[in-house]
Amino acid sequence: MSDSRIRAFDWLRGLAVLVMIQTHALELLRADLAKGTVYGWVQRLDGLVAPSFLLTAGFALGLVSLRAQDRLAQAKKNLWRIGEVLLVASWVNAAWFPVFREPRWLLRLDILHCVGLSLLATLGLLTLLRRWPAWSLAASLAVGLAVFFVAPLLEGVPQPWAAWVSAKGGGLFPLAPWAGYVFSGAVIGGLAALRPSWLGRVLWGALVVAFAGWAATEPLRALYPAHDFWVTNPANTAQRLVFVLGTVLVFRGVERSRPAWAQTRVGAFLTTFGTSSLSAYFFHEMLLFYPTLGFLSFAKWWRGKLDWAELAAALVALWALTYACVQLWARWEPAVRQALARAVGGRPGQE
């Protein structure tokens, strides 16, 4: 990991990976336990996973895009990386659905598709305005806010657009409101690249704005016709951002006051998952759901059968196995990247 990385965002993404694995592992919980206070609090925590992933993805894109001296060359590297995200997204869909008989399943928007497409749109804007970085960030902020505020109005959009912009259209993570987190993250990352000393103030400013949006819950609820408040309303988005930005600020405080924490076991563990989130996503999905070699699948053996204590043990095992797979892949990845680059005549992107 380069010393130029901002570890607080790596740690946020690493924590999001751990919670994401826990979220998906709830498939192993007995149905009679999927209710009550404990389950409700777990669900609230799980609701912060997607915003964390999307915000950190946008932050990384904005940071490397505006930090680069040759922004066009950096855009090409970013494009390669986004292509990898979309490739893995399609691969995961192909693992679950008969994509060769019904290619429409390739268009099913899950979190990786949303990340990839949102990054693609953000990269296009940053590249188009690369000569005017301040304007590129202003435009990104405007687009992000527009996505957040228009999301409740898109719930009734007809097909085929509904699958892309509304959860009611069949997409698990449609571009509205989720792409707004990527654009917002890109603004924070871009400002961190242009004015590194501003990062703390930018994060606190964003947190204050998010608090204001959360405080305006009732006016924002009344602003729209009937809609799914907990998915599309800007006040709900603001509430999620309060917790995500608050977590980043805590990690940022640790990063600045105790830099050696990155070398501790916990810090290194979070860093590994945070800097390898794409491979962690893929491997945990395969371990949890896909019957590799006909038997290696947590869901095949324990779906809907575990109590809370048993689930906790299974979750620790799943974390450990995913971590081992990520570490093995890290050893093989450079050679695979070089082979792919030679095959397509391009250059491998960097994390």
In terms of topology, how is this protein built?
Elements: H1 7-25, H2 36-46, H3 49-67, H4 71-96, H5 111-128, H6 133-150, H7 162-165, H8 175-194, H9 199-215, H10 217-222, H11 229-232, H12 234-257, H13 265-275, H14 277-289, H15 298-302, H16 308-344
Helix pairs in contact: 1-2, 1-3, 1-12, 1-13, 1-14, 1-16, 3-4, 3-5, 3-8, 4-5, 5-6, 5-8, 6-8, 9-12, 14-16
Structure in a nutshell:
The chain is mainly alpha-helical and 351 residues long. It has helices at residues 7-25, 36-46, 49-67, 71-96, 111-128, 133-150, 162-165, 175-194, 199-215, 217-222, 229-232, 234-257, 265-275, 277-289, 298-302, 308-344.
Task: Write up what this structure looks like.
It contains 16 helices and no strands. 72% of the residues lie in helices and 0% in strands. α1 packs across α12, α1 packs parallel to α14 and α14 (277-289) crosses α16 (308-344). The protein has one domain. It has 351 residues and is an all-alpha fold.
How far apart, in Å, are the first and last alpha carbons? Answer: 9 Å
Question: What value does the average pLDDT take?
Answer: 90
Oligomer: single chain
Task: Indicate the percent of residues in helices.
Answer: over 70%
Q: Summarize the biggest pleated sheet.
A: none
**CA-atom Rg in angstroms:** 20 Å
Helical run tally: 16
- Categorize the overall geometry: globular
